[in-house]
Design the sequence.
């Protein structure tokens, strides 16, 4: 009986994984196909399409996306830590309401948010910042709930006795934040920051309203290109950005030190 | 300048209008090992937190070496603290944990190393400095916590149920070790616990708290021998507590009627007989008489029937009915020669009047 259940379980897991990875496999295969039509299971292989990526047409949007995503990750990381600190650690009055407010962007569709931001900027006479500054601001609004939530959860799970122990050992508040609180919530904050980076890097629905023509992010450049042509360059762009995102996640995991020392250290 | 490391002067603390500690007065002399003992919710942890500075008294004053601590934050009180859950910093090695207090105080690096070594040596963990806490056993982690607390040479070491998370054997070994560390350092230890055996085993003095107030304090032995109230008699060790009233005084003995029974006990306690409400008899102070022993003057003799026997290994615990609805627990040493009485057999109990401790509640 148990064996049957175990078999069914692994079968289900296998099917789910297949369902997730098969489309990616198609894209990878298509990006390596020498024919200019997008095909699956080509008989010959080429890397020519990737060569086409190394032109300004793709490099410019890519670099802009990386710049924006990096700034968004940094800004929402700092703001998220500060917000979580005030809400969870200091328990300022109205903490729950503030948290609800910070999480509220999650419940508004991104298209609506995009329109609202454009309208808002033109009403207050700030159309001039449309383009990169507006993109950064909008992505921060979008990413902040994730970072704040993650940082808040880490802080809430933080054992208050560690703080008291440090305090009884003579550590001032600043020293406790630097040596105890921040290192302890680092993994949570870093995964929030990773999210922020990816959310910004992949974003289409908000960005589409805010980019300036000729100065677009990578996903918008892809959308624009798709309007006129569907060829393996598309597949190559997508595979390349997928590899890039995986590399970013790997990098953050490395810095994050999700190593054994942070788990089960204090009971 | 007096000789007290810690003084609590009519300290009260209430949370949301609910009094947790009321008008507490306590003086802890330098170098003493004092246990604050009481059941959970008696206010002992709140008291410790007020000494440490994490709770501010609603009224009254906390003094360390004669200086009021009201406006001194916890990080400036120079008190060591050991927690029940160890509270080691998981992202630091053992040596970094132990050196943390000195680092935060800006002690020069050259001095920190040897101080850490010394602290680890005093808890017998030398050589483990490079490990991370999670690589250590529970007992070792608690020693690291101890080393971390004593490394900056605090005025007083506060321990909040530090052994509760350890298993029984380790706990018993750690009791002895803690006592040795205390003697070796000569530092004042304030030890909060609900475990009366722990308190008895280690303390120079026990302070018993109940419902936010101190009900009795003294050396472990004197508390055990002379509990002041029914609560203390019941909480410290095992005891037979009988409701009694005074009927007459003989030369050196008081005669007590056990309420609701014809039984009469003599007590050698010298106290105001009018105030007597109950008495306490320790199970191990009751002896089984087999007719060969000589009666001591005034000794109580009671006949009873053994209801049941529990074998505790070194001792046999007898429950003996001495009257309707009245039974005494008797503890007799398991001997090679003498076999314990069978359940249902009749026995004669002897109780020295000095072992009948009268209580006023």
Sequence:
């Amino acid at each position: 009986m148990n064996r049957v259940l175990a078999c069914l379980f692994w079968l289900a897991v296998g099917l789910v994984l297949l369902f997730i990875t098969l489309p990616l496999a198609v894209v990878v295969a298509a990006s390596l196909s020498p024919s200019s039509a997008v095909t699956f299971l080509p008989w010959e292989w080429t890397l020519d399409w990737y060569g086409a990526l190394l032109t300004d047409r793709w490099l410019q949007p890519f670099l802009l996306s990386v710049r924006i995503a990096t700034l968004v990750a940094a800004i929402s990381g700092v703001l998220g830590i500060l917000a979580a600190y005030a809400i969870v650690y200091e328990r300022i009055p109205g903490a729950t309401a503030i948290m609800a407010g910070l999480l509220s962007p999650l419940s508004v569709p991104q298209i609506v948010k995009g329109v609202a931001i454009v309208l808002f900027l033109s009403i207050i006479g700030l159309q001039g910042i449309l383009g990169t500054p507006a993109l950064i601001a909008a992505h921060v609004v979008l990413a902040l709930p994730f970072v704040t939530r993650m940082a808040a959860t880490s802080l809430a799970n933080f054992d208050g006795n560690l703080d008291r122990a440090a305090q009884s050992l003579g550590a001032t508040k600043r020293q406790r934040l630097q040596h105890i609180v921040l290192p302890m919530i680092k993994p949570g904050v870093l995964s929030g920051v990773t999210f922020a980076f990816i959310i910004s890097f992949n974003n289409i629905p908000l960005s589409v309203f805010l980019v300036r023509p000729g100065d677009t992010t990578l996903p918008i450049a892809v959308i624009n290109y798709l309007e006129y042509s569907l060829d393996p360059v598309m597949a190559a762009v997508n595979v390349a950005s997928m590899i890039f995102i995986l590399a970013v996640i790997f990098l953050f995991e490395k810095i994050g030190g999700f190593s054994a020392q942070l788990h089960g250290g204090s009971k | 300048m007096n000789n007290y490391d810690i003084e609590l002067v009519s300290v009260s603390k209430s949370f949301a209008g609910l009094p947790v500690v009321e008008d507490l007065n306590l003086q802890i002399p330098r170098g003493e090992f004092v246990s604050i003992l009481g059941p959970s919710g008696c206010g002992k942890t709140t008291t410790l937190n007020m000494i440490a500075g994490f709770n501010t008294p609603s009224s009254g004053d906390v003094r360390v070496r004669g200086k009021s601590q009201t406006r001194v934050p916890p990080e400036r009180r120079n008190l060591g603290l050991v927690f029940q859950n160890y509270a080691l910093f998981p992202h630091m090695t053992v040596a970094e944990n132990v050196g943390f207090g000195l680092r935060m105080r800006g002690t020069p690096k050259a001095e920190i190393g040897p101080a850490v070594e010394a602290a680890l040596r005093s808890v017998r963990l030398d050589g483990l400095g490079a490990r991370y806490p999670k690589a250590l056993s529970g007992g070792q982690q608690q020693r690291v916590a101890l080393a971390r607390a004593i490394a900056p040479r605090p005025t007083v070491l506060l321990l909040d149920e530090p052994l509760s998370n350890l298993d029984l054997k380790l706990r018993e070994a750690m009791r002895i070790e803690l006592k040795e560390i205390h003697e070796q350092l000569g530092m004042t230890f304030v030890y909060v616990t609900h475990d009366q055996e722990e308190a008895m085993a280690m303390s120079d003095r026990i302070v018993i708290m109940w419902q936010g107030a101190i009900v009795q304090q003294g050396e472990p032995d004197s508390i055990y021998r002379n509990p002041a109230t029914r609560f203390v008699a019941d909480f410290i060790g095992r005891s037979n507590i009988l409701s009694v009233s005074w009927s007459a005084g003989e030369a050196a003995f008081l005669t007590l009627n056990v309420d609701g029974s014809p039984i009469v006990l003599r007590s050698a306690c010298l106290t105001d007989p009018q105030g007597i409400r109950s008495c306490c008899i320790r199970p191990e102070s009751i002896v089984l008489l087999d007719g060969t022993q000589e009666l001591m003057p005034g000794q109580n003799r009671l006949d009873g029937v053994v209801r049941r026997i529990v074998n505790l290994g070194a001792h046999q615990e007898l429950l003996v009915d001495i009257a309707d609805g009245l039974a005494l627990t008797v503890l007799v040493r398991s001997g090679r020669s003498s076999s314990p009485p069978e359940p249902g057999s009749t026995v004669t109990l002897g109780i020295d009047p000095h072992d009948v401790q009268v209580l006023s509640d």
Residues 1-46 of chain A form one domain.
